[in-house]
Every structure is written in C-alpha cells, then in structure tokens.
C-alpha cells in the first residue's frame, strides 16, 4: 500500500493531476510570485508546515528568509519583504543577542546570514539597539564556528576541516559548506577588517581551506562530480557508510543532487565576497568551474537534474534493500526522478557565477537559461487563486550516524529511505527558486 501511494503521488506530481494545480500562466517576476504566494505564507521544513514570522531558528526557514531579503534588496519598494524577515529574526532572538545552537552543529549557523543586512539597515535607520543585537548575534555564530566547532585532528587527513556535526565525528558533508563557511565569509566581508589585517587574512585562509579540503577528497575526476560526504576516519562506527579503500577512501557511495547544490551555491556566494587578491581566490574559482562543468554534463534534456546525478529515470532502487547489521533497510523499487531543490540551486549558482565573472557566459549561459526554463516548466504550478507551488523535492537526506543505520548513502537510500520522501513546497526548494529567479530577472 505504501509503495502504491508513493507511485500515485509521484505520478500526480509529474502529470499535475491536482485540480488546484494548473500549468504555468506567466513567466514574469517569478521571484515576487514565490515570495508573496508561498514564502511569506506557508512552506514545509522536512514535511512540517511553517509560517516564517514564527518559524524556529533553522537552516530551512533561514534560507527562505534569506531569499526574501535578497528579493527586497532587488525590489526595495517591497518593504513587506524586509519586515517579515525582521519579524522572523526578532521572534528567534526574543529581545536577546544570541540564539540557541547545538554544539558543533553546522546546520544551526546558516540562518545567521540574514543578520548582516538587518544590522546594516537598522543602523542606517538609527535603530542602534536592534542593529547591535543583530551584529552581536552574527558574531556569536561566526565565533562559535571559528573557535569552538569541532575540527578534524592534526594527525588526520583533512586536518582543520569542520565536522558536519558533533554526532558525525571527522566527517565533512557538501551541505556543510553552505551552512558554515559561507556564513563565516559573510561575517568577514561585513566585519573582518575590524579584526585587523593579519586576523582577517587568517580567517579567509581558514574559509578557503574548508573548500579545498572537501574538494580534494570528494571530487571524482572521471565522473566530474563530488560525493555527498567524506570521512577522515572511515573505520569509525559512525562512518559505516564510507568507502574503506581507495581511490576515494572515506567517501559516501553516491552523488546526491541537493548536496552538490549546497556546495555549488556556497562557492559562488563565498567568491562574491572573498577578496580577489587573496591567494586562494583563484583556487576556489577553479573549483567552481570544475563543479559547473561536471554538472553541465549531467543536465537532463528538460533542463533539470535528477535526485541521483549520475543516472536518469531508468535507474531504480533494486527492490532488495540494503543489508546492515543483519537488518534490511531502504527496500523499494522507486525510480530516480527530476528533483526541484537541486535544480534550483544549480540554476542560481550558474546565473550568479556568470554575473560575477567566475563562470564563462559563453560556456555556461546556455546551460543556465535551459535550467531556468526547465525549472519553471517541470516544477512550478499556479492555482486559479494565484497560489504558487513548487513540486517534486526531496524532503531530506543524510548519512548515519550509527544510531540510524538505515541512512546508508546508497542509491536505495536516496530513493527509498524513510526520511527521503518526495514532497512539495519545501523551503529548501522555495528559497533557491527565489534566488534563481532574482538572478534571471536581473539579467533581463
């Protein structure tokens, strides 16, 4: 029955069978449509419905808020956009200048990206108290990462790399580069000069080190893709999913779309603010070009990308599941599918990378334009009442730890895992769609 319902749901999404969901009506200012008819109303965070003004401090509402704030920067007459993001920040801060974050949990930091703009704007308005609270909170989050977050030890490969989370010792995931180092870079851009030249330079060195480390260990030169995660200690029981031998020792088995989406977006965001004369600027620019070239190779004819990047929809889970510790997990025969959050992140990163000049428009603009067209055609549906929906997102995915041995990182897991369901109006797709649309609209 569960399998039947899944197939029916997926077929419904693909054919837009819901009476409330019609074909796309307009291609104008999709950023505003998504902000006003979805992001500012309700969206999902791992299948849980949220309203932004009273959402919890988390990377998903934070991503939605960040995208709305970017829309306000591009369309400053939309003051209501700024107001709801400020309301979200104030709800989470509760009059204080810190938020609760778990120890060495890199996901808990990303929402802080909204604080730089809020602090600057409130200072400009003369609201010194709120401006200080926002800056202090941003500094708290950055310092939590820089000085307190667990890192890979000096005697191990990848020494100095940030753990994805404390429960994943000596592991780096592609997702984490968007959550931590990109926030770190935003702080350095906004406030780094206050530290003094030497300390600011050291921080940029640290940020670049994170990208160079994960790329060194996860980039498959033949397939031109990055594995979702890497463990510096693949013998650790929490890294049961990791490759135990070369050539990609410590890597997880598959190339996950949204994982690479987080990574690609983090690269262009950091390159936007990184000093161009820094010794590693060219290294990160080279990495982003490798990522862009690899993803272009796997773009579907529709313009979008699949949940599992190296396959098309002929790839199915094997129906046998994964045997781990005597149990069988992730058993189904679901097919690989075009996935909206990864496709939106890639579209955003291509368009922004071209605008910044770190990606060559001659090589990648056709990829980006095809991607945006596919994004709208494949995933966006508008209702009669103006409601807008974004379909076909992976709810969540991860690897381990030992207490969750079903998260194996196999193709079976990414297609059948208990937490890897297909959903719609997921914040992890809404935010990147808004960001991609803003980039598309500003080039027109």
Descriptive notes:
- Helix content is 50%, strand content 7%.
- It has 444 residues and is mainly α.
- It is globular.
- The N and C termini lie far apart (48 Å).
- Mean pLDDT is 94; it is low at 1-27.
Outline of the structure:
The chain is mainly α and 444 residues long. Helices cover 50% and strands 7% of the residues. The strands form 6 sheets. A two-stranded antiparallel sheet has the order 1-2. A two-stranded antiparallel sheet has the order 3-6. It has a two-stranded antiparallel ribbon with strand order 4-5.
- List how many beta strands DSSP finds: 12
Compressed to H and E, one letter per element, the order equals: HHEEHHHHEHHHEEEHHEEHHEEEHEH
Q: Mind describing the biggest β-sheet?
A: 2 strands, antiparallel
Structural class: mainly alpha
* Helicity range: 40-55%
Strand residues, percent: 5-15%
First and last CA, distance: 48 Å
Instruction: Figure out the total of helices.
Output: 15
* Uncertain ranges: 1-27
Rounded radius of gyration (Å): 21 Å
**Strand order within the widest beta sheet:** 1-2
User: What is the arithmetic mean of pLDDT?
Assistant: 94
Shape: globular
What are the main properties of this structure?
globular, two-stranded antiparallel ribbon, 15 helices, mainly alpha, 444 residues
Blueprint of the fold:
Layout (H helix, E strand, L loop, with lengths): L1 H14 L14 H10 L3 E3 L2 E3 L8 H16 L4 H15 L20 H12 L2 H21 L22 E3 H6 L1 H11 L5 H22 E2 L4 E2 L2 E3 L25 H17 L7 H17 L24 E3 L2 E3 L10 H17 L4 H19 E3 L5 E3 L2 E2 L16 H6 L5 E2 L3 H17 L1
């Amino acid at each position: 029955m569960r399998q039947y319902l899944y197939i029916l749901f997926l077929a419904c999404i693909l054919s837009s069978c819901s009476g409330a969901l019609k074909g796309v009506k307009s291609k104008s200012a999709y950023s505003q449509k998504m902000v006003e008819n979805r992001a500012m109303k309700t969206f999902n965070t791992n299948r849980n419905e949220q309203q932004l003004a009273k959402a919890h401090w988390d990377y998903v509402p934070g991503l939605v808020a960040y995208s709305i704030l970017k829309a306000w920067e591009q369309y400053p007459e939309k003051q209501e956009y700024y107001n709801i993001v400020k309301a979200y920040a104030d709800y989470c801060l509760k009059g204080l200048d810190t938020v609760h974050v778990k120890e060495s949990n890199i996901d808990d930091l990303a929402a802080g990206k909204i604080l730089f703009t809020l602090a600057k704007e409130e200072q400009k308005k003369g609201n010194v108290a709120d401006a200080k609270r926002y800056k202090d909170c941003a500094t708290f989050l950055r310092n939590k990462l820089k000085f307190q977050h667990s890192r890979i030890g000096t005697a191990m490969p990848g020494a100095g790399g940030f753990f994805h989370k404390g429960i994943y010792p000596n592991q780096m995931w592609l997702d984490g580069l968007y959550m931590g180092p990109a926030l770190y870079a935003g702080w350095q851009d906004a406030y780094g000069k206050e530290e003094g030249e030497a300390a600011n330079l050291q921080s940029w060195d640290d940020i670049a080190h994170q990208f160079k480390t994960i790329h060194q260990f996860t980039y498959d030169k033949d397939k031109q893709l990055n594995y979702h995660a890497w463990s510096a200690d693949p013998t650790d029981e929490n890294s049961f999913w990791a490759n135990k031998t070369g050539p990609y020792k410590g890597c997880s088995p598959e190339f996950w779309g949204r994982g690479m989406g987080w990574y690609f977006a983090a690269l262009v965001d950091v390159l936007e603010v990184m000093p161009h004369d820094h010794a590693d600027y060219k290294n990160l620019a080279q990495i982003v070009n490798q990522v862009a070239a690899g993803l272009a190779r796997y773009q579907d004819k529709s313009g979008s990308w699949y949940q599992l990047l190296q396959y098309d929809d002929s790839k199915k889970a094997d129906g046998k599941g994964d045997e781990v510790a005597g149990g069988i997990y992730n058993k189904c025969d679901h097919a690989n599918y075009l996935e909206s959050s990864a496709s939106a992140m890639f579209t955003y990163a291509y368009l922004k990378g071209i605008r910044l000049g770190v990606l060559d428009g001659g090589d990648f603009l056709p990829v980006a334009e095809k991607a945006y067209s596919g994004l709208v055609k494949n995933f966006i549906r508008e209702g009669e009442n103006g409601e807008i929906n974004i379909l076909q997102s992976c709810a969540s995915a991860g690897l381990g730890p030992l207490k969750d041995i079903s998260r194996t990182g196999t193709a079976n897991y990414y297609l059948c895992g208990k937490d890897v369901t297909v959903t719609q109006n997921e914040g992890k797709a809404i935010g990147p769609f808004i960001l991609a649309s803003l980039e598309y609209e500003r080039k027109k």
